[in-house]
Amino acid sequence: MLKVNDIRKHFIEELKNENFSRDKSGVKTIELIGASFHANEEAIFGTPNDEYIADELDWYRSMSTNINDIGDRDEPPAAWKYSANEHGEINSNYGTLIYSDKYYRQYDMVLDELLTNMDSRRATMVYNRPSIWAEYNENNKNDFICTNAVTYYLRDGAIHAVVQMRSNDVVFGYKNDYAWQLFVLEQLVADYNRCYLDTAWDADYRKEMTVGNITWQVQNLHVYERHFNLVK
């Protein structure tokens, strides 16, 4: 399987060859359609902003759908402001999508599925939804959820994640999304092990699980022109 460095090399080569596409605003991008790789690094280009990532994780866990609740800052990040309506409301609080009753407590459902069926192929948290076509631009939002779904597999003593995304910005998007997906995977492993020990499963094939691999699958992985200077 490809790794992050293979993806890095692709974008370096695309930029060198000036193989550009353009987004809806006419800005140049370099892209990879149908990307699939082992997410073995926390960034493809650039450096993670640990302070912002901590704020975003706290916001996801709060399940607030208002971007004004992201950390203690004068104003929300520009990318979120672009996605929100005039009141700051968005669709893409990922904590809401997997933890809330509104979306069927998918985190809990996946945990239960893994505990009861170690060979399961349906331990999936669905982020996107058909109704997004009516919801992405309601009240002047611009937020068509980027993550489609994440499926978890209990294999070889570890819990692995396969992240499936509609669209992913290499520079800002990947770093922050990777941090979230790693957080959820680590939480899932810890909760699985706690439940396993607390309930004293008597099946002799069970054991405590470790954090496995994250496979990153993206329909469109891209770098915007303003970040071309980072592609090196």
Instruction: Report, as a whole number of angstroms, the end-to-end distance.
Output: 22 Å
Whole-number mean pLDDT? 95
Overall outline:
globular
Q: How many beta-strand elements?
A: 7
Helix content: 25-40%
**Which residues sit in consecutive blocks of at least 5 with pLDDT less than 50?**
none
Oligomeric assembly: single chain
Q: Total helix count?
A: 7
Output the structural class.
Answer: alpha/beta
What pattern of helices and strands is seen along the backbone?
Answer: HEEHHHHEHEEEHE
Instruction: Report Rg.
Output: 19 Å
- Strand proportion, as a percent range, falls in 15-25%
Main beta-sheet annotation = 7 strands, mixed
Give the helices and strands, then pairings.
Elements: H1 4-16, E1 21-22, E2 28-38, H2 50-62, H3 78-83, H4 94-99, H5 106-116, E3 124-126, H6 132-135, E4 147-155, E5 158-165, E6 168-169, H7 172-199, E7 210-224
Helix pairs in contact: 5-7
List its salient traits:
alpha/beta; 7 helices; 7-stranded mixed β-sheet; 232 residues; globular
Q: How would you sum up this structure in a few lines?
A:
This protein has seven helices and seven strands. With 232 residues, the chain is α/β, with parallel strands linked by helices.
Write structural notes for this entry.
The protein contains 7 helices and 7 strands. Strands 1, 2, 3, 4, 5, 6 and 7 form a 7-stranded mixed beta sheet that branches. The two termini are 22 Å apart. Helices cover 35% and strands 22% of the residues. Strand 1 and strand 2 form a beta hairpin. It is an alpha/beta fold and 232 residues long.
